[in-house]
Structures are given as C-alpha cells and as structure tokens.
C-alpha cells in the first residue's frame, strides 16, 4: 500500500512539473503572438485560417492526456534512477569540461534525429491512425498543440527521456535546460506566425527549422518532418520544395495556403 502511495505521489510530482513547463511555454508564446507583438505577428501569419476555440480546447485536452503519459513514464524513469541505471550527474567535476560544454548540443542533435525518424515512421499508413492522427487534427496549429498527442505518440515521445538518460551521462542542469529548450521550441513551431527574421533562410541559420517549416507539415502532412534542424529533411529529400517561398510569403504578409493567398507571390526562392 505504501508503495502504491509513493508511486501516486511520484506520478503527481511529474505531472505538476510537466504541466508547469507546458503552461509557461504555451502561455508565453500565445501572449507574444496575440498581445505583446500582436500587430507584427498578425502581419506574419502563415495561414489565412485562424484556429477556433474548439481547436484550442481539443489541443489542451490531448496535451493533458500526454502529460498523464509523461508522468507514468516519469515513474519508470524514477525507478531506473533508484536502481542506478541512469547516468545523470550533479557534480560538474564528474566529467571533463569538454563534455560539460558539448553535452547540450549533442543532446539536441540526438533528440532531433530521434524525432525525425519516429515522426516519419508515424506517418506510415499502418501507424498514422493509431499514433499521429490526433496531432494532425490541428490543421492550423496553436502553441497549445505542443503536446496534443494520442497515447501512442505521447509514449513514443516520452520514452526518449529514460532512454537517453540511461545511455549518455548528462548533468542535471543540462537536462533541465534541454527540457525548457524543447518545450519552448515546440510551442514556437506551432505559433501560426513566423517568428524568425527575414534573413534566416539565406544564411547559416538555415540549418534550423522555422515556424513556417513545421506549419507546412500541418498543412500538407507528407514532408518537413524535422524539429530543430532542416538537415534530415534535406538529406532524405522530404523537405517541401516551396518551403523557402512559403517562409518569405509569411514574412512579407502573404499566406502560404495556395488557395487563400493575399497577394501574388514572389517566384524566387529566397527573400531578397
Ligand atoms: Zn506539430
Ligand atoms: Zn506529422
């Protein structure tokens, strides 16, 4: 009985922590879009269609379900930790300085790779309905769609944590920074307005995705599977051909939806 009570407490703790991060990220991005930079963001909307309250309610509902799954996986992670199977450490001196410096970028690259391939696999017709259909109910996503997953997708996404923590040594601070980077990036990619500066796709930062990159995925499904970076999509030939054009359209105040664009589009592939 005591064991079950302890498990319930651990579950509740994980749920509260993940809920806090989700609320902070989705609220912050929503406020930036609809209040702080409202006019600027409104001129950079990617789709003409606006998400309805019903869409937002559904996204929050499924995100709560996802937090429940994450909390359950959190119990498994805690048990693995108690058994000494996780390689998380608390003293910076436990590992060399070079590893402390590069572990966050390494973690982000590994997560990006995990995300690209599991995401692409979930688009296989045999898996889509059971794993990924819920997330794609958001044709015009909002920041609240960040965790709008079915149980299958939430499990696949959540299992990354115990897996990576068992495989590579990570300082607790690095892990917490990663969690915040992940949820904020996630909320930004679903913002519906283009945050990134015009020059983004013309320079070295083009290796990183933009809101338009992921928004196009929600509009057209079969392409732009990446999360942080564009390189997997480019290596695998899965990036939408009109990505840069759609990005420029959003930055210039033209919608990327081909049926509802405001003005004629530029035919060149960069914003210049
Ligand atoms: Zn999405
Ligand atoms: Zn997808």
In short:
This protein is mainly α and 272 residues long. Helices cover 59% and strands 1% of the residues.
Task: Describe what you observe in this structure.
By secondary structure, the chain is mainly α. It has one domain. The protein contains 11 helices and 2 strands. A two-stranded parallel ribbon has the order 1-2. The structure holds zinc ion (ZN) (2 copies).
Please state the average pLDDT score.
93
What is bound: which ligands?
zinc ion
Largest sheet: 2 strands, parallel
| Helix share bin | 55-70%
Structural category: mainly alpha
Q: Please state how the strands of the largest beta sheet are arranged side by side.
A: 1-2
User: How many separate helices?
Assistant: 11
Total individual domains:
1
* Low-confidence runs of at least 5 consecutive residues: 260-270
Outline type: globular
Could you name the key traits of this structure?
disordered C terminus, 272 residues, Fatty acid hydroxylase domain-containing protein, binds zinc ion, globular, mainly alpha, Fatty_acid_hydroxylase, transmembrane helix, oxidoreductase activity
